[in-house]
Structures are given as structure tokens and as C-alpha cells.
Amino acid sequence: SGLKEVWKETKVLKKLKVLDLRSCHNLTKTPDFRGLCCLEELYLNHCTSLVEIDQSIGNLDRLVFLDFGDCKNLRILPRTICELKSLKNLTLLGCLKLDKLPEDLGKMEQLTVLLAYETAIKQLPISINHLKNLRQLSLSRYDGTISTISFRSLFLSLFSPKKPPDSISLLPASLSGLCSLTTLSLPNCELSDDALPHDLGSLPSLQTLDLGRNNFHCLPASISRLSKLQNLQLSDCTMLESIPDLPANLIGLIASNCTSLERISNVSNVRTYSYMLLSGCSKLVEIGGLDKLESTEDIRIEWHTNFANSSEKTSSLKDMIQFLMWRNLAITPMEWFIEIKAHKSGSNTHGVAH
């Protein structure tokens, strides 16, 4: 749409419930919202020139759904947005220049979904812990900014004295207030060991945890207390060296291309049918508790590695798994996978290889 301005003065539209302004590529500022007392849904996604949100947005007492997706030039949200007491879904996907959220975000009492993939957000406000109804928190850093760097700035970055790493932590020290959170997705957020809350295991409702493409060496041991966790995603965490005891109800662990991963502490307490995808984990030498798996459940492991370059310890792990499966694996030169099944009818454990 070529729309540049929605309306100049306040419009009183008492019955309007949905305002759809998506793909207004020339729109730089939102209209005055004060006359839209019944508005429930506001779509501003794909407004690629949008830079200013009118302060009156805080007057939309009945607003439930707000979408700023792909507003590539939006840099700031007004503080008044935190006055949206009825808002349940806030989408900021692809707001490439948005680098912070309002400090009073925790006042949005009904917020259940916050989607902020591919933004420039560096730190979540401490008040996020007050979002008792938040069920999904998804955030990732936009990593395509190199295309906007000038040759001069690149030259200076290479030859100027190095600054110490940024000490700002994305996450607050504790997330324990997010008692309803079922999905926490933080891929590609440059999270180091210090950036992960030690009480990560205090999220009683968490079912899905995605920490892929981050920079930590280990996970907090408290993740074993995530009693409802079913899916753990750690792919492309190339600095990850070990994974602590897994929660008992875990269904899937995906840790592909964790090239520094050496050990998984304990899988013996996993009670449900589970799978582990470990392709590219060439340094893996230990999966603790494989010989103590309960005979009433199944576990499937896929492990792809290059045996031409495998170490003696890696071969020992292979030998242990072969022993557990009671027969030799047909191992191809480049990759292999094993499947371990413990049947409810008995303790016969066997393997399948391709």
C-alpha cells in the first residue's frame, strides 16, 4: 500500500475492533488511537518505513493482539505501550533496529506471547519477571548487520585497541517469576555461561527450551529439575562441552553440531520415549547411564560422526553401545546411527544401523 497517513485528527470509531494497516510501506507514523475505544486487534506488520508509534496507543484498553512484525526501521516502543492491560500477544519479529523493550513491560498483566526473533534487543527488562501469564518468550539477535558496516568502520574495528566484551546480560538474574512459561526460545542470543540464570530449573511449566547457536560451555545443573520439559534444543552450540543430568520427562534432545561436546552426564533417569540427535558431535566420548536405562521404555539415539578421525575414547563409547545391543553395528566410513529399544515385554535390547 502507498498510504502515508491514516488520518490527521482523532477519529472516533467506537465499534471498530480490527485495524489492519499491514504492508503500508510508506507509513512512517501511526495515527492517533484515542477514538478507538473498542479496538481488539492492530496489525502494523510489514510497515517497513514505520519509525514512530503514537503515545495514544496506551489508550487501547481492549487491545488483545498487536503485530509489529517486519517493521525494519522501528527503533523504540513508547512507554505507554505498557498500559495495555488486556494485551495477550505482542509480535516484534524482524524489528531489526529495535534494541530495547520498555522498562515497565511487566505491567502487561495479560501478556501470554512475546515474539521477538531477529531484533537488536540486548537486555530484557527486570520487570519481565512480573509476567505471571506469559506462556511463550521467543527472542533472537539479528545477525545480518555486517552488510550495513562501512569499509571505514570495519578498518577501525580491525586496527583499533580492543575493547573488553560487552558485560550486558540479555536475561535477568532470575526467571523464577515466569510461572506459566511453557516455551523459552533464545537461539543466537550470544549467551555465555554467566548469562544463563542459575535457577533455570525453577520454571515449573516449561516444556520447550531452545538455546541453540549460543556461546556457553555448560548448562546450569538445575535444568534436571524442569519436571515438565519435553524438548531441549542445543544445536550449533559449538562451545558446549557437557550436558548435565536430563529431566525425567524429556522426549527429545537435539544437540547437532555441538563440536566441543564431550559428555552427556546421565540419561538413565529419562522415563519417557526419548530421542537424541547428536550429528556432528565428533568429540563425544561419554553418554552416562546408557547401561541403566529402564526396561519399560524406549530411547533412540542418532549419532553421526567421522570415524576416520575418531579418538580412542570415541571408539570406546562405540564398543560400550555395541555391548549393550548384543550385536555388532554395520558402521559406514563417514556416519552411523544407533537405535536402542528396551521392550515392555522383556529386556531384549538390540540396535539398528544404516
From TrEMBL:
Q: InterPro entries this protein is in?
A: Leu-rich_rpt, LRR_dom_sf
Q: Per the UniProt record, which residue ranges are transmembrane?
A: none
Q: Which SUPFAM superfamilies match?
A: L domain-like
Out of the domains of life, which is the source? Eukaryota
Q: Which PANTHER family match?
A: LEUCINE-RICH REPEAT-CONTAINING PROTEIN 57 (PTHR47186), OS09G0267800 PROTEIN (PTHR47186:SF3)
The name under which this protein is listed is Putative TMV resistance protein N-like isoform X1
Q: Which organism is it from?
A: Davidia involucrata
